[in-house]
Known about the structure:
Blueprint (H helix, E strand, L loop, with lengths): L1 H22 L6 H24 L4 H15 L2 H13 L3 H27 L2
Helix pairs in contact: 1-2, 1-3, 2-3, 2-5, 4-5
Amino acid sequence: MVGIGGLIGSILRYLASVFFAEHVNSPFPYATLIVNIVGCFLIGLLFAVSDRWEVLSPEWRILLTTGFCGGFTTFSTFSYESVRLMQDGEMLFAFANVAVSVLAGFAATWLAIVLVRSI
């Protein structure tokens, strides 16, 4: 189940990278940032929905969270791109990437949980 979810998540992650590479000309790693925020929101949503209504079997939960979200989000890429920005002298972009990714990621996960709990 993890492998199936990871396969799908990894393919979508790659497609997001291709899309941003073709449409955004910037040293800032927007694709990684957006994927990580969306992935954080999605994992928060999945856990909250699963906890609240028990609509996901353990197999689907592991496929979607560990598999899909794990394959889709890109912490190792985020780390590498941040270090690379620092090595390239882009300190402002490096620190912005770290700060926005971490803060927005936590906020997205929290928001998903709050939204589900409010239903």
